[in-house]
Amino acid sequence: MRSLWLGVLVCTAMFAACGDDDSDFATRPSDDSSSSVCEDCDDESSSSVTPKSSDSETSVSSSSTKSSSSSVKSSSSVKNESSSSVTLSSSSSDISAVEESSSSEDSSNSSSSDSEESSSSAGEAASSSSSVELNCSALLEATDGWSWDIPKECRFNPDITYGTMADSRDGQTYKTVKIGEQTWMAENLNYADSTKTPSLLKRSWCYNNNIENCAVAGRLYTWSAAIDSVKLATDADNPQDCGYGKICTLPAKVQGICPEGWHLPTRAEWNTLFAEVGGGLTAGKVLKSQTGWYNKGSGTDGVGFSALSVGYRDINGIFRDDGFYANFWSTVEFKDNFAYRMCFYDDYESAGLYDFNKINGVSVRCVKDDP
Hints:
The chain is an alpha+beta fold. Helix content is 16%, strand content 18%.
């Protein structure tokens, strides 16, 4: 009987994120499955997806589906000596966006108009010229799995030659990486100015509403924020009313909240990335960062994408699953309340696109426009 109850608890936990409580479509692979279960995964996947019968938007309100205290040390810690030290250039986050993070709890379940005007005056982020030498090996060896105290510089693959991109809106600089014919941001977007971009008002957060966490892993955005729904609604040539509870016809390329010259990836662009690294069945292993994942779930970061396990903010305003999951929005809707996001999980090597409630707060990676 005890074994039966343990089995029930394990199965319940597995539905919490990538085939999560907010989704009525995707399910995670069973423990003995070697295939990815998602919409439009690569052709190697032979498994089928069983839709849930309910599209309830109620999510589990526990702070995390899994307890980090029960996690196993990341298997990639043996690689830490390759990144013995890096120089940390401290660039401040948009401190003026704190009011969005701290006052947004009551907005997550609201389908209020995306065109509400911003009352905040988020200033541009100021870059600091100071730098400090970090001993990343020592920091990583002292940490099992994920820690918000590890600077993002320690998470990049030291064997990859990264490019850089400066966001002219706030002066922040991001690492970039060319993978096949695509150029991707190699870190999560951290743009927060809701005066310049009203779509962001009460629709983006730092994990646990801690501004320092944004400096580590960027911000978490609703889907409406990610596509910049206010800009779409006010487009003079092709206005579109998009967001929670709505279905709209998006243009082929959606800049969203990405910097000029970059855009929010489509489902096809995510699948192109998967194909470049060997297919969806192993994409998670190749694209996940070398450290920071529980349950021996860290990846090889073979192409420098460096996906961090930063979790997400659920529809009840609870931040959850850091150390276990990474999620990134796409432009594609599933239905009025759901859109597709790309998902990695700790204990599987696969990756795929799964539907997710549009109100959830999810990371954003931008892909460069074609020349």
